[in-house]
Amino acid sequence: MDPFVPASWLEQHDGVRVVDVRDRWEYDSIGHLPGAVNVPFESFRSDEGEAGKLPPRGEWEDLLSAAGIDADDEIVAYDDTQGVFAARFAVTALLLGHDPAKVHVLDGDFSSWQREGETTTDAIDERRSSANRTQSDDVDPKPAHYVSDPDAETPLVDFETVNELLPAVEAGDVTLVDTREDWEFEEGHLPGAVQVDWRELVDEESRGLKPEAELRALLEARGIVPGKRAVLYCNTARRVSHTYLALRELGYEDVGLYEGSLTEWEDRGGEIVSE
C-alpha cells in the first residue's frame, strides 16, 4: 500500500484516474491536472451516511460511476489544502471497499504540482493528439458502472469499541490519537488521548509529508509506535483521514479509525476531558 505518491510517480504511470476534490470554480478557473476529473469534497461528504459520516454506498457508487471510475481503477486524489481533503476522498474509497493498493493521494497538492507540473483549464486536454489520448485525458468521461465491496475489511471502530478500549488506553496498551489543533484539544478530548495536529505531519515547503525520519520521531515522542494499536479521531473524520494514511505510509498496521469522532462521542454522552 502506497497511500501517498509523488508527482514523479503520477507522471510515470498511465491509465490512472486522477481526481480533483476542490470546488468546481477552482477546477474550472484556476486550472487542474491534465485529465483530472472533478469530484468536489462536498459531493461525498455526508452528515447521515454509513458509519455516521460516510456517504451512503449507493450515492458513492453513483458519484464514481458519473466520474468514469471503475472499481478496479487506480486512483490518485489531490486538493489544494496539503492533502487533507484528498485524504478524505481516499479513505472514503477504502472504507467503502476500493482496493487499498489502488488508492493514493498526491504527495503535495495543486499548488505544489503547479510549480513545475503541467495544468490546464480545458475540458479535454487538447495538447495531446486524439491518437495518443487515453481515458485519463478525458475529463468529461464516459460514465462507468462502479460497484463497491460491502464485505471488504475496514479499520472502522465504533462508539462502543472506543468506550471499551479506554481501560487499555489508560494502561498504555492502546494509543488514542486526537488529530485536531492544540486549542481544540485543550477545550475537550477523549480520556487518555494524545494530541497530534495533522498539520504537524506536513512540510510547509513541499506541502506534502515531512521526511520519514522526522515523522517517526514526532510520532514516537507522542507514544504512537509501530506494533502498538492506535485509534484516531478528530471532529468529523476529515483530518483523521490524513493521519490515518500517513501512519499507513510509515507501515503502521494496527490503526483504527473512529469515524464518528468527537461529534458522535459527545452526542452519545461519552466522557470529555478538558485541560
From TrEMBL:
It is an enzyme of class 2 (transferase). The keyword Transferase applies. SMART domains: RHOD (SM00450). It comes from the Archaea. Its EC number is 2.8.1.-. Residues 115-151 are annotated as: Disordered. It holds the Pfam family Rhodanese. The keyword DNA-binding does not apply. This is Sulfurtransferase. It comes from Halolamina litorea.
